[in-house]
Automatic annotation (TrEMBL):
SUPFAM superfamilies: Hypothetical protein TM1070 (SSF89232). This is Sensory rhodopsin transducer. It comes from Nitrospira defluvii. InterPro entries: ASRT, TM1070-like_sf. It comes from the Bacteria.
């Protein structure tokens, strides 16, 4: 499989809860990007974060090696700035080669955890 996916993706939903229940880091509330690169060259990925009440932040830069996957927690993004907790945000993911993007959230604010996952919206 070569070049599966798109080069631009959007996630309209993002939110990192401030509190967590359970052992860290496994049960820390988080948002994750799952990036799949099936192409024979590395993917140079740029992530821009959009907010309701302030200017966008980014790009955050990530490399996904050829024919590999990378799972990246939004909580771990720090350069150019950490993603704020308890704040609604959205993201735009752009790559130099086609990739597939999936979004997952673990909300562990209570002992009864919630986990959901969805595909990002592929842009032409």
């Amino acid at each position: 499989m070569e070049g599966v996916g798109r080069m631009k993706w959007a996630l309209a939903e993002g939110y990192i809860p401030r509190h967590s229940h359970g052992p860290a880091p496994q049960m820390t509330s988080h948002e994750t990007l799952c990036l799949l690169n099936t192409s024979p060259q590395e993917a140079l990925v740029r992530i821009t974060i959009y907010f309701a009440d302030r200017e966008p932040v980014g790009p955050y830069r990530v490399t996904v090696p050829a024919r590999r996957t990378k799972h990246l927690r939004f909580n771990d993004l720090t350069d150019p700035a950490p993603i704020p907790v308890d704040t609604d945000y959205a993201s735009l993911i752009e790559s130099n080669v086609p990739i597939v993007v999936q979004h997952t959230r673990l909300d562990s604010r209570q002992a009864e955890n919630a986990l959901f996952s969805t595909m990002a919206f592929p842009l032409p």
